[in-house]
Amino acid sequence: MTQGIHKLLIANRGEIAVRIIRAAQALGIPTVAACSEADVDSQAARMADEVHILGPARADKSYLNIEALIGALTATGANAVHPGYGFLSENADFAEAVLAAGAIFVGPSPDTIRRMGDKAEARRTAQAAGVPVVPGSADELFDVDSALKAAESVGYPLLIKASAGGGGRGIRLAQSAQQLSEEFPRAQREAQTAFGNGAVYLERFIGKARHIEVQVLGDGQRAVHLFERECSLQRRRQKVFEEAPSPVLTQQQRETLCESAVRLAESLGYKGAGTLEYLYDDETGEFFFIEMNTRIQVEHPVSELITGIDLVQAMLRIAAGEPLGLQQSDIRLNGAAVQMRLNAEDPARNFFPSPGVVEALVWPQGEGVRVDTHLYQGYRVPPYYDSLLAKLIVHGADRSQALARASSAVEQTQLTGMASTLSLHGQLLKQPWLHSADFNTGTLETWLVEHSGGGDA
Amino acid sequence: MAEHTVITPLPGTFYRKASPDSDNFVEVGAQVTADTVIGLIEVMKQFSELTAGAAGRVSAFLVEDGDPIEPGQVIATLDDE
């Protein structure tokens, strides 16, 4: 089937490296774990057919080292690379280097990666495909009159943002034309002082936004969607608890949203698995494209559980040159799934990292339960990389069954040797607002602040 | 001449500067107070400051910029000259 790939190099680590090796094994493809010196004892290294050491622990000397990775291809004779997520997965130069070495990059073309990695270019691409983006003034604005005129189409409330800005600096909120007239000169002065450039632009402010994203698969000609995920529960822009489908969309909204994602993917001639992220305005029911991730995502399993499709295997088949075997009508939404990320962070100490050695380890079992992890008893979690330890993923016939099974899965799980966010999920699953899906992207952080003051709620 | 050792409580990666382009927080020979930041420790993508912990003069760094470190390891020494 996948005769195009005769040996696969995994340019990643942790749970996703394990996940990719499993998919390759299911397709009968031999694997090479390309790892750092710190990961020689990792689960991925134990499972792979071969291990190739890239360099020292530091990511810039190993998992981010393009030269070392291309060297690994040559040394092992692998003819394909799966980049996983993070590290070099959205680095167009890396994809280009892999192709130049005569190997297959499991993902879209370098041009697509580059295009969707550029925020302005991604926005233009979406608009050209008829996908709504957050309303904003296109141009740099220099005076109040042109700002007031632009505001008519942007709508209130809106944000005045510095064109040369970033990181949340130089942003002002205006609720009305009156306020815009007052705030505009201030924003200009701030922009001038902070960035040496007084140009500003306007963008619609969405006070209560949900993060909803659509999973797509494309073969370069055709694309299909695997419905949406909702990932509104975030801390410091890191997703904590994810689910599929979104509990708030109507069938009509779901179709419109997912079809827009397919349109964008097809306009790109997209090849591989990708995710289009949207903001959903909880007050108006509008959705706006914000960015595309041209790789597999951490939360992909919830989409797999509601559709029965193995996304990582599909990525490998597409990369090997097979056309998409699926029609959109073949893909059915079955039940609901949630994913809880277990990180080596201590919720009681403001999520301070907690690397350590795995002592007791018991994973949950039962219908609809899946655990994606690289942990084993006695494994020493290195301090050099991100803190993701495992993902507890639970499927149910509907959302309430999935949540009930999730609570039971958390109760069954035992992990000692380090602090983890397991207890956080236990608490979250007791919150009425989680069960009623009454949340937005600000909810978790607000709750954490209130929660930490009041002891164990 | 008494000597004080600066010990890391954390594992991770030690950095002597805030970013690759900046200067070192302190150089050998510098006078420091207990609160002077002498480096950063990166643990699982989060950064913590390492302070000298005592007043004195930095006599040596035993760890290079970017080196992996273990809890309890001596990072630098101070003397109170």
UniProtKB/TrEMBL annotation, chain A:
Fetch the Pfam families from UniProt: Biotin_carb_C, Biotin_carb_N, CPSase_L_D2
The keyword ATP-binding appears for this protein = yes
All copies of domain ATP-grasp, residue ranges = 123-320
Q: What reaction gets catalysed by this protein?
A: N(6)-biotinyl-L-lysyl-[protein] + hydrogencarbonate + ATP = N(6)-carboxybiotinyl-L-lysyl-[protein] + ADP + phosphate + H(+)
Domain of life of the organism encoding this protein: Bacteria
Keywords of the record: ATP-binding, Biotin, Ligase, Nucleotide-binding
SUPFAM superfamilies to which the protein is assigned, alphabetical: Glutathione synthetase ATP-binding domain-like, PreATP-grasp domain, Rudiment single hybrid motif
Entry's EC annotation: 6.3.4.14
Q: Please tell me which top-level EC class this enzyme sits in.
A: ligase
Record pathway: Lipid metabolism; malonyl-CoA biosynthesis; malonyl-CoA from acetyl-CoA: step 1/1
Q: Which InterPro entries match?
A: ACC_Biotin_Carboxylase (IPR051602), ATP-grasp (IPR011761), BC-like_N (IPR005481), Biotin_carboxylation_dom (IPR011764), Biotin_COase_C (IPR005482), CPAse_ATP-bd (IPR005479), PreATP-grasp_dom_sf (IPR016185), Rudment_hybrid_motif (IPR011054)
Residue ranges occupied by any Biotin carboxylation domain in the UniProt entry: 4-449
The GO terms describing molecular function are: ATP binding; biotin carboxylase activity; metal ion binding
Is the keyword Ligase assigned to this protein?
yes
Instruction: Share what the entry says about its subunit structure, partners included.
Output: Acetyl-CoA carboxylase is a heterohexamer of biotin carboxyl carrier protein, biotin carboxylase and the two subunits of carboxyl transferase in a 2:2 complex.
Summarize the protein's role.
This protein is a component of the acetyl coenzyme A carboxylase complex; first, biotin carboxylase catalyzes the carboxylation of the carrier protein and then the transcarboxylase transfers the carboxyl group to form malonyl-CoA.
How is this protein named in the record? Answer: Biotin carboxylase
Task: List the source organism.
Answer: Pseudomonas helleri
Q: What is the lineage of its organism?
A: Bacteria, Pseudomonadati, Pseudomonadota, Gammaproteobacteria, Pseudomonadales
From TrEMBL, chain B:
GO terms (BP aspect): fatty acid biosynthetic process
Which UniProt keyword terms apply here?
Biotin, Fatty acid biosynthesis, Fatty acid metabolism, Lipid biosynthesis, Lipid metabolism
Protein known as:
Biotin carboxyl carrier protein of acetyl-CoA carboxylase
Any Pfam family from its record, for instance, is Biotin_lipoyl
Against NCBIfam families, the record matches this protein to: PRK07051.1
Source domain of life: Bacteria
Gene3D superfamilies the record matches: 2.40.50.100
Record domain Lipoyl-binding: where: 1-79
Q: Which InterPro entries match?
A: AcCoA_biotinCC, Biotin_lipoyl, Single_hybrid_motif
Instruction: State the GO CC annotations.
Output: acetyl-CoA carboxylase complex
**Protein source organism:** Pseudomonas helleri
The protein's job, in short, is: This protein is a component of the acetyl coenzyme A carboxylase complex; first, biotin carboxylase catalyzes the carboxylation of the carrier protein and then the transcarboxylase transfers the carboxyl group to form malonyl-CoA.
Quote the pathway field.
Answer: Lipid metabolism; fatty acid biosynthesis
Molecular function terms, GO-annotated: acetyl-CoA carboxylase activity
